[in-house]
Write a structure and sequence with these properties.
Helix content is 39%, strand content 18%.
């Protein structure tokens, strides 16, 4: 039985590195700070903000000019996101949560122009950067 246990352990250990490398285990999310984003806007760069929060939260308040594409709908709405120009995703989630899911969904579909805003929408609000409110 000892030989069988050692064989099983050796087999498991050979699978672990392959499992860790599968998916996005070694790929990093491209984050950008809200202060840098504001600087880019002030410098005249056109940015498409993609708000992945639920539509109700988006309706209440959002980054000025943002487009609402809730994470649950993103897979069906990729055509609304350009592959050229800068795209910044934000939400009110923990880093690497839904924002990471959205980032990797876009990456897996050929997008190389995407970043996730650090601190999400709360960081934007905290700095009193431009927002819009109400229905759009």
């Amino acid at each position: 039985m000892g030989g069988l246990a050692a064989l099983l352990l050796a087999w498991i250990l050979t699978l672990v590195p392959a499992t860790l490398q599968a998916g996005h285990g070694r790929e990093e999310i491209n984050y950008i700070g809200p202060d840098r984003v504001k600087g880019l806007l002030e410098g005249g760069e056109k940015i498409l903000f993609v708000d992945i929060r639920p539509a109700k939260e988006y309706q209440e308040k959002r980054v000025a000019g943002a487009r609402s594409i809730p994470i649950a709908e993103m897979g069906k709405r990729l055509s609304e996101i350009p592959k050229a120009g800068r795209v910044i995703i934000y939400c009110n989630c923990k880093p690497g949560g839904e924002d990471g899911d959205a980032f990797f969904l876009l990456r897996d579909n050929g997008y190389r122009n995407v970043a996730v805003m650090e601190e999400g929408f709360s960081g934007w609000l905290k700095r009193k950067f431009p927002i819009e409110t109400g229905r759009r």
